[in-house]
Amino acid sequence: MRPTVAATFCALVVSILVVSIFGVGATSTSAQEVPKPNFVFILADDMRNDDLRYMPKTNALLAEQGMRFENAFVSYALCCPSRSTIMRGQYAHNTGVWDHVSGPDGGWEGYQNHGNEQDNVATRLHDAGYRTGLFGKYLNGYYDTTYVPPGWDDWFVKFSRYEWSGKFNYQYYDYDVNDNGAITHFGTDTADYSTDVIGGRAQEFIGASVAEGKPFFAYVAPSAPHGPAIPAQRHLLAFEGEQAPRLPSFNEEDVSDKPPGIQSRQSLGAKITTKIDTRHEKRVGTLQALDELVEGVVSQLEGLGALENTYVVFTSDNGWYHGEHRVAKGKSLPYEEGIHMPLLIRGPGVQAGSTTDALTLNTDF
After folding, report:
1. Is 79 a catalytic residue?
2. Which residues contact 293 (CB under 8 A, 6 or more apart)?
3. Are the beta carbons of 107 and 101 closer than 8 angstroms?
4. Cys-Cys with 110: which of 20, 106, 259, 335 at CB 3.0–4.6 Å?
5. pLDDT digits (tens, 9 = 90+) for 154-197
6. How far apart are the first and last CA of the chain?
């Protein structure tokens, strides 16, 4: 699809949503009776745009049946600033969330400190008559609490904190969840694998919403492929020996045109390259359960007769470096691998198998 057509489509969708959600300009009874569309927003964690090639079900169900955005980017490739932008539609200098470590201007504390919990996509959709649910990760620093923010009808959030040691508490097993105000522990059994648990709860929410005849907004945010990446037991050997991408920027030989922080980095040796490949193998292994989560949600929507009135969005909060520009791991630098996101949307009025080159940012959600 050409950018001009894509822009027309986006404008049309926005107009439809404004009328259907808030009733703007609706003068006839028939117009007011048009059912409000549902939204399922699936947000991966640290997933690069080129990681999509490891998710065949997602490509078949969303890209081939919807629109692929070739130029989707985030304005700040770090989890909490990016997720705050998604919730609020504002850049970090307006949300006030600059860091992933909880503090006055970072993490959950920063998000609260700047009043963002009082007005965001959830509170607005809730006030417009939607059932809202968040399943998975909220923000770093949301930990060991029974507090549920306003605007959410169903709250199933895995605790997430930044340890002073610099290691994240992002377990795929053996984790705690705030389940609508009650802390629940999940252990190490195969049934406790967090991506499967989160997907199951999201489906329960969708089923209950359809049964009640209410429009819904499901924000589904599993940990995959964030490290330490642990694939589900059934996927442990799915990509054994898989090599990380070797882009032209990998272990860049000449960095004289780069900022001092990159120029000072040493070339990557064989030991580090092996670690990069091992990490990549585990990361793409975790994407298999996420691929199944997408398939499960779409299949359920279809079985309930709700798919044709539901926008299913798949994207990520930020990317990841696999040795590009001599960066062995990480994300926050403003290079392609950290800011270029996968973005697929399927839903009413979206042409199957279409693509757009129009620039899209996480402020647009």
Report:
1. yes
2. 42, 195, 196, 198, 199, 202, 220, 222
3. yes
4. 106
5. 999 999 876 544 555 568 999 999 999 999 999 999 999 999 99
6. 20
CA pair distance 335, 14, nearest whole angstrom: 30
Sequence-ordered list of residues with C-beta below 8 angstroms from that of 255, at least 6 positions apart, any chain: 262, 263, 265, 325, 326
SS3 content of the chain, % helix, strand, coil (to 5): 40, 20, 45
Q: Is a pLDDT exceeding 90 seen at residue 10? A: no
Return d(Cα 265, Cα 251) in angstroms, integer.
10
Tokens of 168: 């994240």
The whole-number pLDDT of residue 171 equals: 81
Give the integer Cα–Cα distance in Å for 89 and 163. 28
Which residue type does 8 have? T
Among the listed residues 18, 12, 45, the one whose alpha carbon sits nearest the alpha carbon of residue 220:
45
Of the chain, the percentage scoring pLDDT greater than 70 comes to 88
Residue 56 has, within 13 A of its CA and on its CB side, a CA count of: 1
Going along the chain, which residue ranges are E strands? 38-44, 67-69, 72-73, 131-136, 154-158, 175-179, 182-186, 216-221, 310-316, 340-341, 343-346, 354-356, 360-361
Looking at the whole model, is its pTM more than 0.85?
yes
Q: Which of 177, 106, 113 is nearest to 141 (CA)?
A: 106
Q: pLDDT band at 102, cuts 50/70/90? A: confident
The letter for the amino acid at 96 is G
Residue 329 neighbours by CB under 8 Å, 6+ apart: 276, 279, 320, 321, 322
Q: Given the residues 42, 79, 157, 276, select the one marked as catalytic.
A: 79
| pLDDT higher than 60, residue 29 | no
Give Cβ neighbours of residue 200 (< 8 Å, ≥ 6 apart): none
